[in-house]
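User:
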Amino acid sequence: MSYAGDNDVPMPRTTKSAIPHIPHIRSLQKACNLHARILMGVLSQKPGPTGLPAEPMASFETRFSATDGGGAHMPAAAIPSSDAVYGQVAALLTSANATDSQTARDVARIGQHHLYLMFTTVANAGLHSFAPDVSGNPESTYNLVHEGVFVDSFRAVASSSAYYSLYALSLPSINDENLLRRVYRSFVYGYLRIEARSTLFNVYPWLIILLDAFGLPLTKG
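Assistant: Predicted structure:
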């Protein structure tokens, strides 16, 4: 699995200018956004995670340890079983059938073997779910593990035509790891982060004010 270290990929600005203008870049962005939503199980048009990871940080830290290369490793016992992966794919498809959204319709056009490969990549990384800390530091071990999972799983399924019927993707862009990381960060730490703040502000406006006053992220981690 590939992970970005501090010297590999500088954190991009979470704006459109962070994404270079190359052929089919819009299609790549759409494919990456769909891929991330599938991994997170977010199939509606509503925003994704609100900045509170499903997997407690404490649990993550007890199973993962950082390496000198900026990555992480975990004991084999921490890897979920194949039954758990099949269960995640089944739950995703059930949710897609019950959800009236373009994302759900797009999921129905992706082969189940591709979905299984995606969630197997999550499981092989020792994660029980794909839940990046959208309001946290992109360079944290927790978020770098998720970023590596995204890149590896996207390259694997996109190169085997998982999104062929949906988007015009070029092989060079699929294999451009730095570009994929930029697109991923723009979506997760740009769009989703903004949506998370907006969602929480509508429900708990006082919370956002307090967090901003003390310079704290939207996370319990």
